[in-house]
Structures are given as C-alpha cells and as structure tokens.
Amino acid sequence: MTVNNPALKGSLAAPKQFFGEHNRYAVAPVHTRFDAVEWFVWDAMHDDADMNRAVVIRQGDSYAAVTEGLK
C-alpha cells in the first residue's frame, strides 16, 4: 500500500511501472491533497501534441481498477 503525503500533491508516490506490448502503458500512484493516492495510467500511443508526452487515459483509486482490461 502506498502512503499519501498531501504536501507532495501532484508528484509520483512510487516509480512508474511499464506494461503492455512494447511497454505501451505506464501506471503509478500520485500524491493528492486528499486522504489517499490516486492511480494514473498513461498511454504512449496517444500523445499530447502540445506537450509531446503520453496522455493520461485512466485515473482511479486502485491499481486493479485502472489497469483492468489493458494488455
């Protein structure tokens, strides 16, 4: 279980884990200003043209919830 630190809101609470074919997806918990971390999934196949970065495709309260159905 990853512990949330509201003072670090917006920063990663653990390193990104890559998965999927050719490491297409990254998942990581992010500190929030609330009680618990929030899990995010980034997809390298969908990038933000303005920022040239992978976009967040899912956000949720658990690793299982945000990675369900992704391969």
Describe the structure.
The chain has 1 helix and 4 strands. 11% of the residues are buried. The protein has one domain. With 71 residues, it is mainly beta. The mean pLDDT is 94.
Summarize the model shown.
This protein has 71 residues and is mainly β.
Task: Tag the structure with descriptive keywords.
71 residues, 4-stranded antiparallel beta sheet, globular, 1 helix, mainly beta
Shape: globular
Series of secondary-structure elements, N-terminal to C-terminal: EEEEH
Determine Rg (CA atoms, Å): 12 Å
Query: How many beta strands in the DSSP annotation?
Result: 4
Beta-strand percent range: 35-45%
Main β sheet profile:
4 strands, antiparallel
Number of helices: 1
Number of domains: 1
* Oligomer status: single chain
Structural class: mainly beta
Low-confidence stretches: none
Write down the overall mean pLDDT: 94
Name the strands of the widest sheet in spatial order: 1-2-3-4
Helix content: under 10%
Gap from first CA to last CA: 23 Å
